[in-house]
User: Fold this.
Amino acid sequence: MLKDPSKRGADQQKLLADTANKVDQMLATMKAAPEQETKFSELKEAWAAFHKTRKEELVPAIVAGKQEEAEKLGTGIQKERIQKVFKLCDELAGSDL
Assistant:
């Protein structure tokens, strides 16, 4: 979406929203093993921040044609957040969620 203008339509926006909402629902129903609760809380917080910024700032900037602003968000804080989500998922992979 950021680099490909053909992926900025309503269908793509709906797909992004639907996917993020499914992740929200899954995280809401999962529970970490006691020794993993802190990491799991970090994961949920990182995902929530990523999702909120994508929904409220990144996608609107992309759709409005504010490419520089969108790239700054997408390659800055959003990249850091999603990398943290992936890292925490990897670390939690062995726990009983």
